[in-house]
Amino acid sequence: MLVSHLHKFIYTKTRKTGGTAIEAYFERFCIPAGQWSLQHHRQEYRSEYGIVGARGPMQRKRGEYWSHMPAARIREKIGPAVWEKYRKFCAIRNPFDKVISAYYFNRFKKRGFVDFYSLDREREALEQWLVEGRKLPVDREMYLIAGQFCLDMVIRYEALTADLERVCASLGLPWIPSALPRLKVGYTPAGFATADLYTDRSRRIVEDAFSFELQFFSYTFPNEAGRVT
Fold it and tell me: What is the pTM of this model?
């Protein structure tokens, strides 16, 4: 999560949405000029310029601010007046793609590598993971407070470049595409279409878990041409 007192914005970080790369891009606007450097993991930073929540293993220490901090907690810490004054945004993603990304990332963390099997085996494995009730990346606490959407803008993962440019323009910040880092990539099987990895049962589980997102953000089940990224 980020707070820029200089540029008056707040970024709440969601999961499996390119959030770390987006966070790293906007961090430089929360830190004095010339003092920022790209770091995958980061300790909590606070000054009159802004706030950068702890990221990676650092966030386990749980200081005042951390990476996936709920919007209500951020508002509580910085105060309602600042919260209302600053422009607020986060990243969102089609839940069906988001779940695929979370599944393969967790498989990588467990094994240290990911072997891809036949499509039938991949579908069975994903369904079993969902049936077992594994923790899904449902993180609507990053953009809802008391059940109400509380941000001003969203960056859609599916339109990442265009939406980042739009948000930067809204905040009066430069958009430099080459400065957006690529982090946490390469875990998912790029050769499979998202739709092909789901069974009817696993699709229903995701539809139930992400019913709010599917309706509020108008996401639908990907067509067969949609590739996992």
Answer: 0.90
